[in-house]
Each structure stands twice: as structure tokens, then as C-alpha cells.
Amino acid sequence: MSQSRMVMALTGVFALSTLSNAAATGLNSAAKAAGLKYFGSATDNSELTDSAYTAVLDDTNQFGQITPGNTMKWVYTEPSQNSFSYTQGDQIANFAKTNGQLLRCHNLVWYQEAPSWVTSGSWTNASLIAAMQAHITNEVTHYKGQCYAWDVVNEALNDDGTYRQWELYNVIGPAYIPLAFEAAAAADPDVKLYYNDYNIETAGAKATAAQNLVKTIKAYGAKIDGIGLESHFIVGETPSASSQASNMASFTALGVEVAVTELDVRQTLPETSAQDQQQAKDYVSTVQACLQTKNCVGVTVWDFDDKYSWVPSTFSGQGAADLYNSAVQPKPAYTSVLSALNAAATAGSGSSSSAPTTLSTVSASPTSSPSSAPASGTVAEYGQCGGIGYTGPTVCESPYSCHSTNSYYSQCY
Ligand SMILES: *[C@@H]1O[C@H](CO)[C@@H](O)[C@H](O)[C@H]1NC(C)=O
């Protein structure tokens, strides 16, 4: 190596080590620095041709995990009995693989998007168990080695905690749930197996029923590794971080991990800046709960932008539920979530430790700066531009200005 190349290489090392002290500029990078495995998003096949959208979703600085919104569901993958189709599911799996993103595979057994040959077939207990097992075995085998986790059974409970009545429950009884987990584990012993549901994000009849389901599955002798907390919330009605965190702890006490799997926070249309500000706080409550919970592994939003949200077509008059707007530009919720993740990373209180998130553990002070070099240069959009202990540049690139999020973190936007 020539001397000048050696100098360049050393400069590169110096630049890298300097960077590692700076706040992360993307959701996934910040989430990982804070101790989570990933920050992710759902997506769908029709969205992958939108280059403005994929430019963001491709970026592992922002998203380290992908969930297929629809096309791994039963009606897509086995539209008629014993006829399997993985073309669309593979497209999303390959998108994640190309980008080096984790894949949450979703889902194997659900009362919606189940094929009509299942829901209006003529079954005996034994024949329906065999059909369910064949479906699970085929699909889990197909995606073996590609999924971080499988949502094995989705939304099997009513809001009052009773079992939802549909074909599998009506014919097989509650045993269909442990039988599904058993079949998935047999097809891929390494993938994490999850039960996923909504309205189980705070203590109540449904959360208790989901905890009982974990015990039932284990008592049956089957394996369950995780609980997916969907977290479809409403602006101003999102539960507090502490109530979400204590509920997460009720699950992890049973020996399972938890993940926030479908986070969005919808508002009444038209979108207003007041609702956007409240929405930012609401998103942070859920992210904080995950950060405070040992064995909460990650947060997935559903989807990351308002353009492809499921909300307006499902909840009349509501929408604008996501981190980015329909022009794929970040909203206040994005900025606040990133700041919350960076603050947790700085405080060293990510979910890899059981310490509660408390900024008072940070000992950095302005007088103990590790570097006496004057800060120079400008900071790009969403970069850090200030905060206690921060020694980097404080001037934002035009047209952005530096805003204080908390005493430890200011950001350009
Ligand atoms: C169906 O068979 C399974 C497996 O043997 C059993 O656990 C379950 O109770 C049966 N369901 C009914 C309704 O008999």
C-alpha cells in the first residue's frame, strides 16, 4: 500500500469512528443502536413498482424488516386445495433478501383471506385438520430459512376474550391453534412462531385470553415463541407507554418475546397539524414501550406511508395514519420516533438490557467533550445538530433549521 493510500485508509477509519458516535439518521439504524433487532414496514406487491416508495423501503438505514401485507395468506398461496402458488409471496421475500432485510412471514391461519374451499367446504374434524396441516407444511417448507418469524395464527380471539367462531374453530374446536403451531414447528424448527392479534396492547379480557392461549399452546406440547401486538391506534386514544410496557411484560413473563407488528395511528380526515403533533406523541408511546421491554424485539409499521395505507378504505373518514405522507415525505411522527430511538440509544437503555429508559443515566456533559476539534460543515435533513455531549456541526443544510427535541438531541428539519 502506498503512503497516500495508507493515509486515506486511516482517514476512513477515523471518519467511521467519528460517525459511530453521532445519532443515527434512519429508523432501523437508530432502533438497532437502541437494542432492538429491527424497525420495519409492511408492504404489498402493487407498491413495489413505485420507485419513490421503494427508494425509501429499500433503505436499510430506515427499514430493516419487511412484512408482506397480503400475498403470503392462505387464499393467495393455496387458492384451491393442494394447488400452491408462491409467485407473489416470493416477490416480497426476494425484495427483502436483496436488501438484506429480515422477513416477518404473515400469516398461515386466519379467518379472513382464507380460501372459500376452506370456509365453505364439507369437513370432518380429521379432514380439516389434515387440510390445515398440509397448507402449513407446504408453505413453511417453501419459505424455510427465509423468515425471521411466522405469524402462525392471526386474530383467533373476540374482543371479550372468547374464541372467534369460524370454520376451523367450529369444526376442530380450540385445538386447531396448538395443532397449527405444531405443524409449523415440524416444518421449520428454527423460525420464530407467533400469535398475532389486535386489542391486546393493554391489559383487559382479550390480552388475558391471549396470555391464556400461550399457556394452552405450551400445555399442548407445542412451541410458541412470540406475540405480535398489532397496535392499530387512534390519534389521542393511544394507550400510554407505561400501560403498553406493563402489558408487554405480562406476555414476556410467560417466556415469549413480543413485537409491535402493525403499528399505525389514524386520524379523522382532513389531516391537521394539531393531529399530526398528537400522532407523533402517540407513535412514541408505543416505541418507548417496546424500548422499555426486555424481549420486545422490534417495531413494524403498516405501512410506512399514507399513500398505501389500508385505513381510508377500512375506516370511513379516517386516514393519515403513517410516518410518511402520501408524497412519501416524513411527517412529525417520523421525526419524533427517530428522536426517541436515538435518545434511547444514547442512554444505553435499549431492550438488550432490562434497565428502564431514563435519560438521567447519561453522564456526558458539555465540558467533558472527547474532542477539541471545532465543529465544521453542515448537517443534512434529519441529522443531529445539537444536544448535551454533542460536538458535531450545528448548522443545518438549507432550507432546514435546527430544532431541539430534548436536552440530549436536536435535529435538522
Ligand atoms: C378434533 O381432533 C383433535 C385432534 O385429535 C382434537 O384435539 C379435537 O378435540 C377434535 N375436535 C372435536 C370437535 O372433536
From TrEMBL:
Single Gene Ontology MF annotation: endo-1,4-beta-xylanase activity
Classification via InterPro entries: CBD (IPR000254), CBD_sf (IPR035971), GH (IPR017853), GH10 (IPR044846), GH10_AS (IPR031158), GH10_dom (IPR001000)
Span of domain CBM1: 377-413
Catalytic residues in the record: E262 (nucleophile)
Region of interest called Disordered, as start-end residue ranges on this chain: 347-375
GO cellular component, one term: extracellular region
Primary localization: secreted
Signal peptide limits: 1-24
EC number assigned by the record: 3.2.1.8
Domain GH10: 30-340
Catalysis performed (reactions): Endohydrolysis of (1->4)-beta-D-xylosidic linkages in xylans
The protein's enzyme class: hydrolase
Annotated localization: Secreted
Pathway note: Glycan degradation; xylan degradation
Annotated protein name in UniProt: Beta-xylanase
